[in-house]
Protein backbone atom coordinates (compact mmCIF):
# COMPACT_ATOMS: atom_id res chain seq x y z
CA UNK A 1 0.00 0.00 0.00
CA UNK A 2 1.25 3.47 -0.84
CA UNK A 3 2.47 5.71 1.95
CA UNK A 4 0.08 8.40 0.67
CA UNK A 5 -2.91 6.37 1.87
CA UNK A 6 -1.56 5.51 5.28
CA UNK A 7 -3.55 6.84 8.25
CA UNK A 8 -1.34 8.85 10.53
CA UNK A 9 -2.09 8.95 14.21
CA UNK A 10 -3.83 12.00 15.60
CA UNK A 11 -0.82 12.68 17.84
CA UNK A 12 1.27 13.58 14.82
CA UNK A 13 -0.97 16.59 14.15
CA UNK A 14 -0.95 18.05 17.65
CA UNK A 15 0.95 21.21 18.38
CA UNK A 16 4.19 20.43 20.19
CA UNK A 17 4.22 21.37 23.85
CA UNK A 18 7.12 23.46 25.03
CA UNK A 19 8.48 24.28 28.44
CA UNK A 20 7.83 27.78 29.73
CA UNK A 21 10.77 30.03 28.87
CA UNK A 22 13.11 30.91 31.71
CA UNK A 23 14.25 34.55 31.57
CA UNK A 24 17.98 34.83 30.86
CA UNK A 25 20.40 36.01 33.51
CA UNK A 26 20.32 35.69 37.28
CA UNK A 27 17.06 34.97 39.09
CA UNK A 28 17.25 37.78 41.63
CA UNK A 29 14.26 37.94 43.97
CA UNK A 30 13.09 39.84 47.01
CA UNK A 31 11.90 37.87 50.06
CA UNK A 32 8.36 38.66 48.85
CA UNK A 33 9.21 37.18 45.46
CA UNK A 34 10.59 34.03 47.06
CA UNK A 35 7.36 33.65 49.07
CA UNK A 36 5.28 34.15 45.91
CA UNK A 37 7.21 31.36 44.18
CA UNK A 38 6.63 29.02 47.14
CA UNK A 39 2.90 29.87 47.07
CA UNK A 40 2.69 29.12 43.35
CA UNK A 41 4.36 25.74 43.88
CA UNK A 42 1.98 24.85 46.72
CA UNK A 43 -1.04 25.85 44.61
CA UNK A 44 0.14 23.78 41.63
CA UNK A 45 0.85 20.77 43.84
CA UNK A 46 -2.72 21.06 45.18
CA UNK A 47 -4.08 21.23 41.63
CA UNK A 48 -2.10 18.14 40.65
CA UNK A 49 -3.38 16.30 43.73
CA UNK A 50 -6.93 17.11 42.64
CA UNK A 51 -6.13 15.64 39.21
CA UNK A 52 -5.13 12.26 40.72
CA UNK A 53 -8.00 10.48 38.93
CA UNK A 54 -7.12 11.92 35.50
CA UNK A 55 -4.84 10.13 33.03
CA UNK A 56 -1.23 11.32 32.84
CA UNK A 57 -1.69 12.45 29.23
CA UNK A 58 -4.64 14.73 30.07
CA UNK A 59 -3.89 18.24 28.78
CA UNK A 60 -4.72 19.92 32.12
CA UNK A 61 -2.40 17.52 33.97
CA UNK A 62 0.38 18.15 31.44
CA UNK A 63 -0.05 21.92 31.74
CA UNK A 64 0.00 21.81 35.55
CA UNK A 65 3.13 19.62 35.55
CA UNK A 66 4.83 21.98 33.07
CA UNK A 67 3.96 24.99 35.23
CA UNK A 68 5.19 23.17 38.34
CA UNK A 69 8.53 22.40 36.65
CA UNK A 70 8.90 26.08 35.77
CA UNK A 71 8.20 27.31 39.30
CA UNK A 72 10.39 24.63 40.91
CA UNK A 73 13.24 25.71 38.63
CA UNK A 74 12.64 29.33 39.58
CA UNK A 75 12.72 28.38 43.27
CA UNK A 76 15.95 26.39 42.92
CA UNK A 77 17.70 29.17 40.99
CA UNK A 78 16.39 32.05 43.11
CA UNK A 79 19.00 34.36 44.62
CA UNK A 80 17.96 36.91 47.21
CA UNK A 81 18.90 40.36 45.94
CA UNK A 82 21.16 42.37 48.24
CA UNK A 83 19.22 44.35 50.83
CA UNK A 84 18.66 47.86 49.42
CA UNK A 85 20.16 50.79 51.29
CA UNK A 86 17.55 53.30 50.10
CA UNK A 87 20.26 55.69 48.88
CA UNK A 88 20.32 54.40 45.30
CA UNK A 89 17.74 52.69 43.11
CA UNK A 90 18.09 48.92 43.53
CA UNK A 91 15.95 45.79 43.50
CA UNK A 92 13.58 46.20 46.42
CA UNK A 93 13.27 49.98 46.20
CA UNK A 94 10.42 52.22 45.14
CA UNK A 95 11.57 55.12 43.00
CA UNK A 96 9.59 58.26 42.27
CA UNK A 97 10.73 60.09 39.15
CA UNK A 98 9.59 62.45 36.44
CA UNK A 99 9.44 61.28 32.84
CA UNK A 100 7.82 63.35 30.08
CA UNK A 101 6.86 65.96 32.70
CA UNK A 102 4.80 63.37 34.61
CA UNK A 103 5.66 62.06 38.04
CA UNK A 104 5.60 58.27 38.35
CA UNK A 105 6.43 55.79 41.07
CA UNK A 106 7.59 52.21 40.49
CA UNK A 107 9.07 49.42 42.59
CA UNK A 108 11.97 47.42 41.14
CA UNK A 109 11.47 43.68 41.77
CA UNK A 110 12.45 40.24 40.42
CA UNK A 111 11.10 38.86 37.14
CA UNK A 112 8.43 36.65 38.66
CA UNK A 113 6.87 39.28 40.88
CA UNK A 114 6.74 41.99 38.22
CA UNK A 115 3.28 43.42 37.59
CA UNK A 116 3.43 46.72 35.69
CA UNK A 117 -0.27 47.42 36.33
CA UNK A 118 0.53 47.38 40.06
CA UNK A 119 3.66 49.51 39.67
CA UNK A 120 6.09 46.58 39.98
CA UNK A 121 8.68 46.25 37.20
CA UNK A 122 11.30 43.57 36.76
CA UNK A 123 14.91 44.59 37.21
CA UNK A 124 15.73 43.64 33.61
CA UNK A 125 13.09 45.92 32.07
CA UNK A 126 14.65 48.79 30.07
CA UNK A 127 13.23 51.44 32.41
CA UNK A 128 14.48 49.57 35.49
CA UNK A 129 17.93 49.17 33.95
CA UNK A 130 18.04 52.93 33.34
CA UNK A 131 16.97 53.68 36.93
CA UNK A 132 19.15 51.20 38.83
CA UNK A 133 22.10 52.89 40.48
CA UNK A 134 20.62 56.40 40.31
CA UNK A 135 20.37 58.71 43.33
CA UNK A 136 17.87 61.37 44.35
CA UNK A 137 18.02 64.52 42.16
CA UNK A 138 20.04 62.69 39.53
CA UNK A 139 19.08 63.33 35.91
CA UNK A 140 19.50 60.32 33.62
CA UNK A 141 19.13 59.57 29.95
CA UNK A 142 16.44 57.20 28.75
CA UNK A 143 15.17 55.95 25.41
CA UNK A 144 17.67 57.98 23.44
CA UNK A 145 16.77 61.25 25.17
CA UNK A 146 19.28 63.12 27.29
CA UNK A 147 18.01 64.11 30.73
CA UNK A 148 14.68 62.34 30.22
CA UNK A 149 14.32 61.19 33.83
CA UNK A 150 14.81 63.05 37.11
CA UNK A 151 14.88 60.98 40.30
CA UNK A 152 12.60 62.56 42.92
CA UNK A 153 12.63 60.03 45.79
CA UNK A 154 13.85 56.55 46.68
CA UNK A 155 12.52 54.35 49.46
CA UNK A 156 12.92 50.72 50.49
CA UNK A 157 9.81 48.64 49.73
CA UNK A 158 8.65 47.20 53.10
CA UNK A 159 8.14 43.65 51.77
CA UNK A 160 11.64 43.63 50.24
CA UNK A 161 13.22 43.62 53.67
CA UNK A 162 14.97 40.50 54.87
CA UNK A 163 12.68 37.70 55.95
Automatic annotation (TrEMBL):
InterPro entries xrefs: GreA/GreB_C_sf, Tscrpt_elong_fac_GreA/B_C, Tscrpt_elong_fac_GreA/B_fam
Domain Transcription elongation factor GreA/GreB C-terminal residues, every copy: 87-154
Domain of life assignment: Bacteria
One GO BP annotation of this record: DNA-templated transcription elongation
Pfam families: GreA_GreB
Gene3D superfamilies: Transcription elongation factor, GreA/GreB, C-terminal domain
Biased composition (Basic and acidic residues): 1-16
Molecular function GO terms recorded: DNA binding; RNA polymerase binding
Region (Disordered): 1-23
PANTHER family: TRANSCRIPTION ELONGATION FACTOR GREA (PTHR30437), TRANSCRIPTION ELONGATION FACTOR GREB (PTHR30437:SF6)
Listed name of the protein: Transcription elongation GreA/GreB family factor
Biological source species: Novosphingobium kunmingense
